[in-house]
Structures are given as structure tokens and as C-alpha cells.
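Thread: Zinc-dependent peptidase, structure

OP (GT): Posting the sequence first so everyone is looking at the same thing. Length is 254 residues per the record. Can we get the C-alpha cells written out before standup tomorrow? I want them in the notebook alongside the other entries.
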Amino acid sequence: MWPLTRHSPPPDFDPARWAQASVGQGVLAGLDESEQKRLWELAHEFLHTRSLQAVGGLELDDTQRLRIALLACLPVLGLDLGWYRGLDEVIVYPDAFAPERNWTDEYGIAHRGRMELAGEAWDEGLMLLSWHDVEAAGPLDGHHVVIHECAHWLDLQNGAANGRPPLHRDMDAQTWTREFAAGYAAFCAHPHRRCAALDPYAAENPAEFFAVCSELFFERPQALHACWPGIHRLLSAFYRQSPETRIRTTGHAR
Ligand SMILES: [Zn+2]
């Protein structure tokens, strides 16, 4: 265990521990040394200020805990942990989990049942992840469960998740709404033709469109740029990062 005092300074950057914790995760492979050190500090602050609990018989060692924290902090590498305000606890299941839920269908009929999930962001201070899916997210294929759930947390920072997180002062809300609404409508009409690289789940609703576009932005930024240069530009401005500088067009980290 890391020493869990709230304001203790992070341990000095350790390249060997970085290599262990980041192994197999394409999104972490192309970071330069200063980015690695910044992410290392954020990840340790994350581990000191949030509870990370393994459940369902899963045990996570320090390296695995650090891996989750590094991945969770990647979206805020250009921001800070204040952007995860309200996120108190990360619960990690061994595999996909199926919480019981109530829902109402389009005819107004109430149902209760279970749906299998790889991850979920709740606005009650919880993020749920499947360890199997965290590990499976390594290749740069446009899918990453941790980035997806973290994008929902950023979206939740100004109320309900609606696909528009709080924007920086130098960003224009109308431009954001216009670009994302147009992209979402075009994708819903012709998902494969409009952007074959984007997971069709993005058509679920505007919040999922933002989260799935964020996955593509971090994993295959050139593919997102080819589909929607405007959305790529807005995500660069929001995340204050340019993953295309560290991920080659082949989809491999530099
Ligand atoms: Zn989602």
C-alpha cells in the first residue's frame, strides 16, 4: 500500500515502476518524460484522495492500482483533479458486472432486470470498472473503458451528463453544441458510413457520443480528425492535449 496521508507528496518518479504500471496500455506508451512525471503525480494524488476498492474476490496489487490511477488521470493530464469533483470511490469488479436496475420502456411499463456492463459512472460519487475490461483496453483500437467512464465524470461536472462538460473560458459553447449536435445527428443517421472508426454505441444519446468520441480522441486521434475535424479540435481544446503528437497514424504509440 502507498502511504495514505491526504497531503503527502508523491514518491519520486520511478521509471521502472512506471514501466510496470503502464505495460500493455497503448494510451500511456507515447507520453514523453515530462508528461509521465505529471501523470505520475496526478495518479498518486488520485490514490491518496479517492478510495479504490476491489470487490467480488478480486485483489489488486500496488502496480495494478497505479495502472488504474494513471489511466483515470490521463483525461485530466492537461487539467487537474478538481475536474473529478464528487468522485470519491472507484469500485473494481473482476469481470463485467450486472447491477440490478429499474427502468421504464417506451410504453410506460416498469421493468426490473440486470444488464452486463464493463464500466459505469454514477453521479453518487462512484465509478464502477471491470478489471478484465481495463486490461482488455490496452490496444489502440478506439475503445477504452476507463477513458469512457472518466469522460462521463467530466460531463457530470455541470449537472446531468448531456455531452457538454463545463468549457474553458476561451471556448465557445455555441460552437461546441453546433459541432457535437451535427456530428451526433449524422452518426445516428448513418453510423458506419459517417465514421466507421466510432463504436456504434455512440448513437445511444449525446452523453455517450461525447464519451465514445473521447475514447477515439485518446486512442485513434487521426481517425477522429478524419471523421470530424471540428470535434477533434474541440476535444483538443477541452482536454488541453494533442494525443496525435504521441500516437502515430498507424494507431501505435510513438
Ligand atoms: Zn457510457
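GT: Both are above now. Quick notes for whoever picks this up: The pocket of zinc ion is lined by residues 148, 152, 208, 211 (CB under 6 Å). The chain has one domain: 15-249.
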